[in-house]
């Protein structure tokens, strides 16, 4: 008696629910990971209330103090009729805000992440290293845009400081802002390897930023600073960012207050680009994912 042959039943694989991407086994692209990393960095930044308050509030508070003390009809800078001190002070605060959001923010936060072991854990994941750095740059852009927007809104709305209406001036603002932000970010990444620990990062980085503000024409009219101080300031990017911002927010006749008698746009672009390239080279050579005592 023959045994009937049983034909195996072939089941079709269940269809994936609509809207579910097919799994190809490929890792997401570097760009996709960078965007996700930018979102993670931004959310993490805004959860650090002390850092948020300092970076956003410092330029606004300093502008408020100087604009209130001197007023738009009070002290004026330059030859008659002069520029109201509050208006003259605004470009320096914009440049300082960019420096805080880029250089100081990254130099301190990356040093802390390294000290706490966060960078070591990230290095052990499949995330491309480039995505980490692009995420930091994305964070800096977001923070800088919000900060500058807040500062300009306060300047115009509360203190009556006139903002430019010429599109050419806003184009100048765009490229000075972009170059300054990029240069500050890469220099912050490079400088983050200097502090020996996360605890010492703030003590190492903050004095550098404060000194640069005093010698770069942020708190005082740059042309009235001693010549030796101007020469020292011209080595560093904050002086050039502040000068570029003065060419945006000050009237054209204010150019006579510059020691060179010119806004020196080519010089500004050259110095900021040089810092961007040097910061990249130094950062690539010196960046560490581990603490000094971790091999």
TrEMBL record:
Alphabetically ordered keywords of this record: Antibiotic resistance, Cell membrane, Membrane, Transmembrane, Transmembrane helix, Transport
Leader peptide range in chain numbering: none
Top-rank taxon: Bacteria
Sequence segments annotated as region (Disordered): 1-27
ABC transmembrane type-2 domain segment(s): 50-290
Transmembrane segments: 51-70, 90-112, 133-158, 170-191, 203-222, 266-287
One term of GO molecular function: ABC-type transporter activity
Main location class: membrane
InterPro entries: ABC2_TM, ABC2_TM_bact-type, ABC_2_transport, Nod_factor_ABC_transporter
GO BP of this protein: response to antibiotic
GO CC annotation: ATP-binding cassette (ABC) transporter complex
Subcellular location, record wording: Cell membrane; Membrane
Membrane topology: Multi-pass membrane protein
Family from the record: Belongs to the ABC-2 integral membrane protein family.
Protein name listed in UniProt: Transport permease protein
Organism lineage: Bacteria, Bacillati, Actinomycetota, Actinomycetes, Micrococcales
């Amino acid at each position: 008696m023959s045994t009937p042959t049983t034909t195996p039943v072939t089941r079709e694989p269940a269809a994936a629910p609509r809207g579910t991407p097919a799994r190809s086994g490929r890792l997401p692209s570097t760009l996709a990971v960078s965007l996700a990393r930018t979102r993670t960095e931004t959310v993490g930044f805004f959860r650090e209330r002390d850092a948020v308050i300092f970076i956003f509030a410092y330029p606004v508070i300093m502008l408020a103090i100087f604009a209130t003390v001197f007023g738009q009809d009070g002290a004026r800078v330059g030859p008659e009729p002069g520029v109201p001190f509050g208006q003259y002070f605004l470009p320096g605060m914009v440049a300082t805000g960019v420096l805080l959001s880029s250089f100081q923010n990254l130099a301190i936060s990356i040093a802390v992440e390294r000290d706490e072991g966060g960078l070591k854990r990230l290095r052990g994941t499949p995330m491309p290293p480039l995505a980490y750095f692009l995420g930091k740059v994305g964070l800096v852009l977001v923070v800088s845009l919000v900060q500058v927007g807040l500062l300009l809104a306060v300047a115009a709305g509360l203190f009556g400081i006139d903002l430019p209406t010429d599109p050419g001036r806003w184009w100048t603002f765009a490229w000075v802002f972009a170059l300054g932000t990029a240069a500050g970010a890469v220099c912050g990444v490079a400088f983050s390897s200097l502090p020996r620990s996360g605890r010492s990062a703030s003590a190492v980085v903050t004095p550098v930023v404060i000194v640069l503000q005093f010698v770069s024409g942020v708190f005082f009219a740059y042309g009235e600073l001693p010549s030796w101080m101007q020469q020292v300031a011209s080595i560093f990017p904050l002086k050039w960012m502040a000068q570029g911002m003065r060419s945006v927010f000050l009237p054209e006749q204010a150019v006579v207050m510059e020691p060179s008698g010119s806004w020196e746009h080519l010089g500004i672009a050259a110095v900021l680009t040089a810092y961007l390239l040097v910061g990249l080279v130094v950062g690539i050579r010196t960046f560490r994912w581990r603490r000094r005592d971790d091999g």
